[in-house]
Design a protein that fits this description.
mainly beta; 13 strands; single chain; 9-stranded antiparallel beta sheet; two-stranded antiparallel sheet
C-alpha cells in the first residue's frame, strides 16, 4: 500500500510541476520588467576560484649554536593548483533585449576570504547572458544563465613553529624561539559561472535577487532597473 502511495505522490508531483512549467510565459518578461532597459545588481555571496599558482620561495630562520650560524637556506616552493574561497561581492549590469527575454550581462566579482592563518583575495571580470521566464505573478522573474571571462587570485598562508635558537653554554639546555613565516600564492585563469536565479520586483524600478550556482554557490543582491 505504501509503495503504491509513494508512486502516486511522485506521479502527481511530476504532473503538477509539468503543468506549472507549461503555464509559464517563455517568450516575455514578467509584468514589472520590460525590454530595452538595464538591470543593476549589487550584493554579497559565497564562492571560490581555482587556478594554477606560483608559491614563491621560503627562507628558513637562522640560529647560532657554539659560535656557528645555521639556517638561512632558501627553497623554491614551485607551482601547484590552489582554491581561493570566501565572500564574493557580485556587481552586475544586464541589458534586457526587447525582442526576446534575454539579458546580456557584464559582471565584476571581487572575492575576499580569511580563516586563521589563511587569507585570500581576487576578482573576476566576466560577460554572458541570462534567459528570463515569466511564471505568472507580475513581480516574479526567473532566469538561468552563464558568464565567462578572466580572474586573478592571491592567497597568503602564515605558519608558526618553535625551533632551537641556541644552547645555553653554562647549563647545556636548549633555547627555543618561535618563527613565523608566510607563503604567498598568485595565479590567474579562465573564469566561468553558471547559475539560476529569481528576482522579486516590488515595483518597476526596485527588487531583490537570489542566485545559486557554481562556483558562486549563493548570492543575494539588490536589483535596480534603469
Amino acid at each position: 500500500m505504501k509503495k503504491h502511495f509513494k508512486k502516486f505522490v511522485l506521479v502527481f508531483a511530476v504532473t503538477l510541476a509539468g503543468a506549472m512549467v507549461s503555464a509559464w510565459d517563455w517568450t516575455s518578461y514578467c509584468e514589472n520588467m520590460d525590454g530595452s532597459q538595464w538591470l543593476i545588481k549589487a550584493g554579497v555571496g559565497y564562492g571560490w576560484s581555482s587556478a594554477k599558482v606560483s608559491y614563491g620561495s621560503y627562507t628558513s630562520p637562522t640560529f647560532t649554536c657554539y659560535g656557528r650560524t645555521y639556517g638561512g637556506e632558501s627553497y623554491d616552493l614551485g607551482k601547484g593548483k590552489s582554491v581561493a574561497a570566501g565572500f564574493v561581492i557580485p556587481i552586475q549590469g544586464e541589458y534586457l533585449l526587447s525582442a526576446i527575454p534575454l539579458g546580456i550581462t557584464a559582471q565584476f566579482r571581487p572575492l575576499f576570504g580569511k580563516a586563521g592563518g589563511y587569507s585570500a583575495s581576487g576578482f573576476a571580470i566576466m560577460a554572458g547572458a541570462n534567459y528570463h521566464v515569466a511564471p505568472g505573478p507580475k513581480w516574479l522573474d526567473l532566469y538561468a544563465g552563464m558568464e565567462m571571462g578572466l580572474f586573478y587570485q592571491s592567497e597568503k598562508y602564515e605558519y608558526s613553529y618553535d625551533y632551537v635558537k641556541d644552547i645555553d653554554s653554562r647549563t647545556g639546555s636548549l633555547i627555543y624561539d618561535t618563527a613565523t613565516y608566510s607563503v604567498k600564492a598568485k595565479g590567474a585563469g579562465f573564469a566561468f559561472d553558471a547559475h539560476i536565479g529569481a528576482s522579486l520586483m516590488f515595483s518597476n524600478m526596485l527588487g531583490v535577487n537570489v542566485e545559486v550556482g557554481y562556483p558562486t554557490v549563493f548570492s543575494t543582491s539588490v536589483v535596480l532597473k534603469i
